Amino acid sequence: MKSKTASRTASTRGRSSNRPGERILLVDDDPTVHDSLNDVLLSEGYLVIPAENGQQALDLANKSPVDLVLLDLNMPVKNGWDTFEELTRQHPLIPVIIATARPNQLFTALNAGVGALMEKPMDIPTLLRTMDKLLAESSDKRLARLAGQNSEFHYKPATGRSGAPPPGGASFTDEELNEP
Known about the structure:
alpha/beta
């Protein structure tokens, strides 16, 4: 039986966006977070492919095209970092945004070559701008980031918390993230 989210996802293609129809693999086992992000992404015109754990995400990424992955870290079956590692080994050109409530993940994310780290609770406008920037990024930039070369990195601490920016120009400033 299809879940309410899966049927809504399959039947709604989106309304209006700069990137209509881009396929977002949304990987989160928390139904509240999953459903709210699903609704936001659909309203922005994205096609959402839902996954409840890392193994399901890998299976889906191998079966159908994906333009971007929004990945939680704390999940059953296969955790987020293991999923990220395998996903980038199999599909190195797909940008990944880590979305987590787990603290102290900044340097792990930088070293792993993640496209962005967004701490929960997330600022939705910042998430959408970050997604746009990563979707527009060249494959050369994505590969450079995975290879550990100096590249742009997107980091947003949880809404309501302040955090130090990553070292060495590896982050967009708030002004750059707020550009139209």
